[in-house]
Amino acid sequence: MTAQSELRLLPWAGPEGKPCYLDTDDREGYMSRLADHIEAVQLGMAAELLGQSVQVLDDEIEDLEKLKLVAAQLAGALRDVLRVATSRGHRLAKSE
Predict the structure, then answer these.
(1) Separation of CA 96 from chain center
(2) pLDDT per residue as tens digits for the range 38-73
(3) φ and ψ at residue 23, rounded to 5 degrees
(4) CB within 8 Å of 9: residues ≥ 6 apart
(5) What does the alpha-carbon distance between residue 71 and residue 73 come to, in Å, rounded to a whole number?
(6) Model confidence at 1, in pLDDT bands (50, 70, 90)?
(7) d(CA 68, CA 65)
(8) What is the DSSP letter of 16?
(9) Residue 94: which of 20, 1, 8, 17 has the closest Cα?
(10) I need a surface site. Which of 1, 40, 59, 85 has the fewest CB within 10 A?
């Protein structure tokens, strides 16, 4: 059995928010490519959301509901980006 530190943390959560892992050495396999694609989408969406949130925060007349929505979206994007960073950090440590 592969140690958990050698598994790839996938960019999505499983049931009940539990992390999902991939056990493969094939970086060109279907699941690895799917995970790479989803990571890229998540990072792109986070960058776009950051730009939008700066605009909302700069607008002095935005209402509280809009600010709450942006905060919730930023929290979700931050969760995704941290998962990507953790996964990539584990893979970097493994390849050294």
Answers:
(1) 23
(2) 999 999 999 999 998 988 888 878 788 888 999 999
(3) -110, 95
(4) 19, 20, 21, 83, 86, 87, 90
(5) 5
(6) very low
(7) 5
(8) G
(9) 8
(10) 1
